[in-house]
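Dear Dr. K.,

Following up on our conversation at the group meeting, I've run the structure prediction for Acyl-CoA thioesterase from Gallintestinimicrobium propionicum. I'm pasting the input sequence below exactly as I used it, so you can double-check it against your construct before we proceed with anything downstream. Let me know if the numbering doesn't match what you have in your notebook.
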Amino acid sequence: MKKRAIESRVEQVYQIRPEHLNGAGRLFGGRLMEWIDEVAGLVGIRHSQCNVITASVDNLKFIRGVFQNDLVVLVGTLTWVGSTSMEVRVDTYVEKLNGTRYPVNRAYLTLVTVDETGKPTKVPGLLIESIGQQAEWEAGQKRKEFRIQRNKEGF
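The predicted structure tokens came back this morning:
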């Protein structure tokens, strides 16, 4: 059975408060990483209808700072699935009061579905419905191969 990516898409919004800030008055990078992992996990759970664990995170490059009172929007989308694993893209934006969004980060996370005993379990397929989704699928396959190679090299 294949499912559509839109069925598992997650959008989460946070307003930055003082407890989210580091000593320089910017959003803690670790807090953003926590939120990214949370959104990716929710996408994985919605798609697989199983528990998931995070296996890896790729590319946490911070493009711009995030400050107190900013609205931060995280959008999680399924990009690729394997047998027991899946890849989720999480895009992070600062959203201005007029609704304009500016990118902060894009991360790709690999998740593994697990049953109640922690054993990996089968992931439903992903229905590719657009050229953009096909491009993400192909790029996801390349990223998987790259992760396998890096793992062999000890990274």
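Two things stood out to me. The mean pLDDT is 94. Residues 131-152 form the longest helix (22 residues).

Best regards,
J.T.
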